[in-house]
What we know:
The chain is α/β, with parallel strands linked by helices. The protein has a single domain (3-157, 182-216, 276-299), classed as Rossmann fold, CATH 3.40.50. Helix content is 43%, strand content 23%. The protein has helices spanning 3-16, 18-25, 31-44, 61-70, 83-96, 134-144, 163-176, 194-203, 223-233, 236-242, 246-260, and strands at 51-54, 75-80, 101-105, 119-125, 145-156, 206-220, 270-283, 295-299. The N and C termini lie far apart (39 Å).
Amino acid sequence: xxxxxxxxxxxxxxxxxxxxxxxxxxxxxxxxxxxxxxxxxxxxxxxxxxxxxxxxxxxxxxxxxxxxxxxxxxxxxxxxxxxxxxxxxxxxxxxxxxxxxxxxxxxxxxxxxxxxxxxxxxxxxxxxxxxxxxxxxxxxxxxxxxxxxxxxxxxxxxxxxxxxxxxxxxxxxxxxxxxxxxxxxxxxxxxxxxxxxxxxxxxxxxxxxxxxxxxxxxxxxxxxxxxxxxxxxxxxxxxxxxxxxxxxxxxxxxxxxxxxxxxxxxxxxxxxxxxxxxxxxxxxxxxxxxxxxxxxxxxx
Length: 300
C-alpha cells in the first residue's frame, strides 16, 4: 500500500466512524481519554485570547474545552482530515454556542494555513501515531506555531501496556498468522517508544521537550460491551472486522473475549490497564537548545 493509498483508506475509515464518535462525545469523557485531555490542557496552560490549533480532533472534545479556556477573545481551529468528523465538530460547537471555534478540514501532514496564520499552541490527542508520516506532521505542527509556541500531544504507550485494544489486534493477527507490524508502521502503538517520539520531536525543531508516562484503567460494563465499544470506534479496525466473513469474525471475537476474561470482575465488569505517553515542547529558534535531552516523568 502506498502512502497515498494509506491516507485515503484512513480518511474513509475514520470518516465512517464519525457518527459513533459524535454520539460518544455527547457523554462525559472517561478513562484514558479523559486523563489525556486533562494532562494536555494542564501542560498547554492556555490563556484567554490565545490562538489554538487542534489536529486529528475526532469529534473535538479537547478543542471545545480549549475554546472555553481561551474565551471570546481567543480562537480555536479544531480540525480533522475526515470531513464527516469536521461536520460533527461543527455541530457540537454550534450547540455549545462557541463562536470562537472554527471546524476545518485539515491534513496534519500537509497543513494548508493562511499565509500569516500562526498559533500559540497546537494540540493533538491520539493522532500522530496513526499518521503515515508523523515526522512530516510534527514538522508542519512546528511551522504552524509562533516562535515559542507550545505543542502538546498524547499517544498510546506500547501495545503490551494497553490490553484494552491489543487483545483484539492480537486476536486478528493470530487468526490470520500475521506477524507484528514493522517498527514505524502507522498504528495505535507506533509512537509508544519514548525514544522514537523524542527523536521525531527533536527532528521537527522542538526544544524544551518533556515526556511523561501516564497510567490508568478503562472500565467496561461487560466483556461484550468492551468488544462492541472498541470495535465500533476503531476506524480501520472496524473496517477490517466489518469486511470479514462471519466464521472469521466469530473466531476472532471468541479469542479476544476469552483473553479478556482474565480481567473480569465478580460483578461482570471488565477493568483493563491503559498507558499513555504525553509529550510537549516549544518551537523556539532563538536559542541553541535543540537536541537537548528531554525531561522524563512518570505518573501512576
